[in-house]
UniProtKB/TrEMBL annotation:
Residues 333-352 are annotated as: Disordered. Pfam families: LacI, Peripla_BP_3. It comes from the Bacteria. SMART domains: HTH_LACI. PROSITE patterns: HTH_LACI_1, HTH_LACI_2. This is LacI family DNA-binding transcriptional regulator. Residues 16-70 form the HTH lacI-type domain. Keywords: DNA-binding, Transcription, Transcription regulation. The keyword Transcription regulation applies. InterPro entries: HTH_LacI, LacI/GalR-like_sensor, Lambda_DNA-bd_dom_sf, Peripla_BP_I. The lineage of its organism: Bacteria, Bacillati, Actinomycetota, Actinomycetes, Micromonosporales. The keyword Transcription regulation applies. SUPFAM superfamilies: lambda repressor-like DNA-binding domains, Periplasmic binding protein-like I.
Amino acid sequence: MHSGSSSPARVGAPRKTIGDIAKAAGVSKGAVSYALNGKPGVSDATRQRILTIARDLGWHPSSAARALSDGRTGVLGLIVDRPARTLGIESFFMQLISGIEATLSARDVGLLLQVTDDQEKEMAAYRHWWAQRRVDGVILVDLRRDDPRVPLLEELGMPCVVIGGPEGLGTLPGIWSDDTGAVTEVVEYLAALGHRRIARVAGLPGLYHTALRDRGVAATAERLGLPEVATVYADYTGEEGARMTRALLSRRPMPTAVIYDNDVMAVAGVAVAHEMGVDIPRELSVVAWDDSPLCQLVHPQLSAVSRDIAAYGSHAAERLLEIIDGTTSATAQDATPRLVPRGSTAPPSGQD
């Protein structure tokens, strides 16, 4: 509320400077600089006194000053090229970002997050960030087949870790998990239960991990002598998951098992099955990919492919920080996702 005073409102205490520390310690600004940057030029006792005073005053180095001293911003970048409305409901990115943040906050490094609605805008943002030295490096997500972002980042020379691989990375390092091995386990499990008519509601067809899962599903079905798995593609939203499930369950004969490429689409699929009078798991088995609390809140609880997504994000952030420090640049494989069977899967009810 405006008080009517002509003097400007005080919005906060002024930021403490090296000059404030020097005055409190009774030393020169140069001595303070030596102490704060760990350089010789002051005695150990004076260094400790200056560090204590700096802490007591609440002093923190500015990102601009840090950039001038060592060329770094103390910020990493992450761009997600997905509709913003999907990020709030899809647990994968929330868990991934929480893992990235946990690692960065422990190192006093910030995260610059941007959501774009097309790939050209994403690529323009990388160019802008690097030209302006806004970030020290980036984490690249949603690797695509023949991804144009890979040669761009190679050309820019921007430190980068790709969440994805092991193929399609160019010279960029990546951290990846074995999607093919995980989806193979799911198909083998459903086949062992007796399912022969298996369908899949997959994610976006241009994404590299979608192609890996496509390949794994097809190869496993062929090896086990199963009919071709009916695969439809969706955008990870509940609306699209429901629409694709409705189409699959309207087929005759309908599938006896459906694999979903995320938890949101799987939960929407369960709702459609209930709506159409299809019993889970007696008439239809359901498997979700990635496990989340959402999978355990529906009835029956969903069998799901589980992995520690927060740890995945944390490992990517650790790898990028190592690259920036010049200590590593190798591609690494993360833990393989594993199937957690629950109440949504069972042998089919004798129909074939």
